């Protein structure tokens, strides 16, 4: 049974989720204003660089209710910012409107905030309550939290495999999952900052790596092409959209294609993580192929794994088939059924 604080904080979290895929590298945040147990205003951070949740919430209050602001409680799923970024500090707005009570979901881990917003409000006489539904609030912004706490992007490994463990045929693109799962994958792409594939996948599938089957912004495209063997007419290099190519050659930019030099050492995964962190790329969806995915698994470099398992077997041999990565985990945290596909979700336990 939810308490009153939990009920309104849950509404904040529901609102915040509407910003998925549109606000990174900022966190998703929702806010509601409550007067005598009734919501008189609500809002969420809708797009990076635009107004924060608190601003949209306060601006949504009808003119007839503006006089109630100073007697209302502001609920916000993440600590209000206290620094000047793309927009002015939300703490200033709260104080300017005379709001005397604020309930927060969790503390912002970003070093420019990280308790400073709460401290400033309390210093100015505002009652600050929380964290409320902290676990849920942290889970919502798990990419943002990990990025700032561990100085690297959130890594999701994803692949589809047949009932008998094949994920493709050598040199030939074949469909493993059903059309419903494919649309879900495009939603996953919309939710992440970047998407990464290896050379063989780029050669065989000639992918676009966008989310054309689901609305919203597409992720930054990344491909590993150490020897620069991808043809110039490949979609990733020729369609005029931004692509990052990790290669052994020198770092140059050619139109919308940015070539980033990888070291020759075995530490290339860390180099990609460092590049992503330096460029504020908060999460990476690693889509394959099998060798690339296995490298991330062996390096223990992942935060989530999503495996789409088809109910159908494929007649392939070791000579012509591509085996799915060898996953040492046997029991998924959750399983979802979509038609005749089952999707297994694994999460690192220390998160």
The count of strands amounts to 17
| Distance, first to last CA | 26 Å
> Within the largest sheet, what's the order of strands?
11-12-10-9-8-13-6-14-17-16
User: Could you name the ranges where pLDDT drops below 50 across 5 or more consecutive residues?
Assistant: none
Strand count, sense and barrel status of the largest sheet are:
10 strands, mixed
Q: Helix coverage percent of residues?
A: 25-40%
Regarding quaternary structure, what we see is single chain
Proportion of β residues? 15-25%
Shape: elongated
Q: Tell me, rounded to a whole number, the average pLDDT.
A: 92
The SSE string, one letter per element, is: HEEHEHEHEHHEEHEHEHEEEHEHEEEE
**Which structural class do you get from the secondary structure elements?**
alpha/beta
Number of helices: 11
Cα gyration radius (Å): 23 Å
């Amino acid at each position: 049974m939810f308490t009153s604080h939990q009920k309104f904080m849950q509404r904040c979290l529901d609102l915040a989720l509407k910003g998925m895929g549109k606000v990174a590298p900022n966190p998703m945040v929702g806010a509601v204003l409550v007067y005598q147990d009734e919501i008189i205003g609500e809002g969420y951070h809708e797009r990076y660089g635009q107004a924060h949740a608190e601003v949209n919430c306060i601006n949504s209050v009808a003119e007839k209710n503006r006089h109630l602001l100073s007697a209302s409680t502001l609920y916000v799923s993440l600590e209000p910012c206290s620094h000047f970024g793309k927009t002015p500090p939300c703490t200033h707005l709260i104080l300017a409107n005379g709001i005397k009570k604020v309930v927060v979901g969790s503390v912002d881990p970003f070093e420019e905030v990280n308790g400073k917003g709460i401290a400033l409000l309390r210093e100015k006489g505002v009652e600050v309550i929380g964290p409320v539904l902290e676990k849920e609030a942290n889970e919502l912004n798990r990419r943002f939290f990990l990025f700032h706490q561990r100085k690297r992007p959130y890594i999701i490994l994803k692949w589809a495999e047949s009932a008998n463990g094949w994920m493709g045929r050598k040199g030939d693109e074949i469909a493993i999952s059903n059309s419903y799962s494919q649309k879900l994958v495009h939603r996953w792409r919309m939710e992440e900052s970047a998407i990464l594939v290896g050379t063989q996948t780029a050669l065989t599938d000639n992918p676009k790596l966008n989310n054309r089957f689901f609305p919203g912004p597409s992720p930054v495209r990344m491909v590993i092409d150490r020897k620069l063997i991808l043809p110039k007419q490949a979609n990733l290099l020729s369609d005029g959209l931004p692509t990052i190519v990790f290669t052994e050659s020198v770092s140059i930019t050619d139109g919308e294609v940015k070539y980033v030099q990888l070291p020759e050492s075995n530490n290339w995964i860390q180099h990609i993580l460092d590049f992503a962190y330096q460029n504020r790329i908060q999460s990476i969806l690693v889509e394959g192929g099998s060798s690339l995915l296995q490298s991330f698994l062996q390096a223990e470099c992942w935060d989530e794994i999503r495996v789409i398992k088809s109910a159908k077997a494929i007649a392939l041999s070791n000579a012509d088939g591509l085996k799915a990565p060898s996953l040492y985990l046997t029991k998924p945290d959750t399983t979802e059924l979509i038609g005749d596909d089952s999707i297994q979700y694994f999460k690192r336990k220390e998160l």
